[in-house]
Amino acid sequence: MSVLSGISCALVAEDNFVLAIELQNELSDLGCPESVIASRLESAILALNVGVQFAILDVELAGEPCTELAERLVAAGVPFMYFSGYVREDFPELPSAPWINKPASSGEIAAAILAAVQQALHPSLTPSH
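Given the sequence above, the corresponding structure tokens read:
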């Protein structure tokens, strides 16, 4: 069974195209057959309309914080993780989700994806931030 078994569409909200493609490939390797890349906040929010079941978020897209996007994912019950060059403590307003810093290995990314999916399945095990 793949890590993302049952997740058919993911969102990669990342404004660095090379990183976005790498994340898209990682999702595919983990069993997600389709993913959407959004490099701006507005397009990431619109992408939620295609039935996204998992998301990887950069905390800022073209200079705009992704707080609204993260809140919408929480409200919709969609598991997600942050992938950022910033540190978690600089964004206390963001909803809780697994966080890894750029750069990261494919193993670190896969572990964070698994943590995000597990957190969504077992919210009582979620550490507070």
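The longest helix spans residues 106-121. Try to locate this feature in the token string yourself.
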